[in-house]
From TrEMBL:
UniProt-recorded name of the protein: Phenylalanine--tRNA ligase alpha subunit
GO terms for MF: ATP binding; magnesium ion binding; phenylalanine-tRNA ligase activity; tRNA binding
Note on cofactor: Binds 2 magnesium ions per tetramer.
Gene Ontology BP annotations: phenylalanyl-tRNA aminoacylation
CDD domains: PheRS_alpha_core (cd00496)
Cofactor(s) for this UniProt protein: Mg(2+)
Keyword Transferase in annotation: no
Phylogenetic classification of the source organism: Bacteria, Pseudomonadati, Pseudomonadota, Alphaproteobacteria, Rhodobacterales
Chief place where the protein resides: cytoplasm
Catalytic activity: tRNA(Phe) + L-phenylalanine + ATP = L-phenylalanyl-tRNA(Phe) + AMP + diphosphate + H(+)
Keyword GTP-binding included in the entry's annotation: no
Domain Aminoacyl-transfer RNA synthetases class-II family profile stretches: 113-329
């Protein structure tokens, strides 16, 4: 019996086969149980020899069964490990992640710096009436500035009586909208897209400006100069950048100034904040009384400064980008080269 069952157990290849063997050998109606029942017919001497032997046989078969069962489980696990492998040393497929566009990033940097100076961010529509874009800014219909700005006019169907709309040519209309909405005093910047029909290495039909406007009881050009120098020093991360104010003309400021920042060229490389060269970066001035009045603010009580700066331009200067058009190409190789994409 022992040889028969131990042999069968050794040859079993799965748990189901083991269960069949178990029932046949040591089950309630198995062969060992039958033999046990025969003990009753034996003489006491015979019984004393056979009883323990049968019990031992039963134990031996049971432990062979459980050893085999464990062995089968191990083998199954080994087999799974062999067939379901994964080579974790293989290089993963590169996953390109989107990043913030340089223009958005620079807009955020600008807003963060001006926030420290007490300026909050204002917004206005990119499609605005020609009143906000021009008239309210002291640029009446015949004014040459309208022609100079290469304005995109929205088409109006015959009989459409809405006021003429334009793609805003600058962020200055937001000056008027903010004066109307907030009144004086106020301190805001407005970053955003603007549009002019122009295209070459330094001009794209859509580009970005950041407008600045501060209105209070006694604001002066000195406040403007200090504010801009604080801003440029923080933006270019260079202490004490100098600015140069050149007399200029804008219909919406009086007096007006174009502002340059200190720079120099060393071995064909532009160095901001060093040397005795100058780079034009923005237009500015004291808000014209007519503009304050158009925004509903009393020019006898309040005054302010305003400036408008090209975001794309200061981004080019900060990151050494030679061609403005690249900002709008969405060329991933370019974005990666400047560290703006992974
Ligand atoms: N709006 C002017 C431009 O687009 C810039 C400017 C803004 C100048 C505010 C003076 C004051 O060129």
């Amino acid at each position: 019996l022992k040889r028969k069952y131990l042999g069968q157990i050794a040859e079993a290849t799965d748990e189901a086969a083991l269960e069949v063997i178990r029932l046949a050998a040591v089950g309630k109606k198995g062969e060992v149980a039958l033999k046990m029942r025969e003990l009753g017919k034996m003489t006491p001497e015979e019984r004393q020899a056979a009883g323990p032997a049968l019990n031992a046989l039963k134990d031996e078969i049971n432990s062979a069964l459980s050893a085999k069962k464990a062995g089968l489980a191990d083998a199954a696990l080994d087999e799974r490990l062999r067939s379901e492998w994964l080579d974790v040393t293989l290089p993963v497929r590169p996953r390109r992640e989107g990043t913030i566009h340089p223009i958005s990033q620079v807009s955020e940097e600008v807003a963060a710096i001006f926030a420290e100076l007490g300026f909050s961010v204002a917004e206005g529509p990119r499609i605005d009436t020609d009143w906000y874009n021009f008239d309210a800014l002291n640029i009446p219909g015949h004014h040459p500035a309208r022609a100079e700005m290469d304005t995109f006019y929205m088409h109006r169907a015959e009989g459409d009586n809405r006021p003429p709309h334009v793609l805003r040519t600058h962020t200055s209309p937001v000056q008027i909208r903010t004066m109307e909405a907030q009144g004086a005093p106020l301190r805001i910047i407005c970053p955003g897209g603007v549009y002019r029909a122009d295209y070459d290495q330094t001009h794209t039909p859509m580009f970005h400006q950041v407008e600045g406007l501060a209105i209070d009881r006694d604001i002066s050009m000195a406040n403007l100069k200090w504010t801009l120098e604080e801003f440029f020093s923080a933006f270019f991360e260079i202490d004490g950048i100098k600015t140069r104010f050149r007399a200029s003309h804008f219909p919406f400021t009086e007096p007006s100034a174009e502002v340059d920042i200190q720079c120099s060229w060393v071995d064909g490389q532009l160095r901001i904040g060093e040397g005795d060269g100058w780079m034009e970066v923005l237009g500015s001035g004291m808000v014209h009384p007519k503009v304050l009045a158009a925004g509903g603010i009393d020019p006898d009580k309040w005054q302010g400064f305003a400036f408008g700066m090209g975001i794309d331009r200061i981004a080019m200067l900060k990151y050494g980008i030679p061609d403005l058009r690249a900002f709008f190409d969405s060329d991933l190789r370019w974005l990666r080269h400047y560290g703006f994409a992974s």
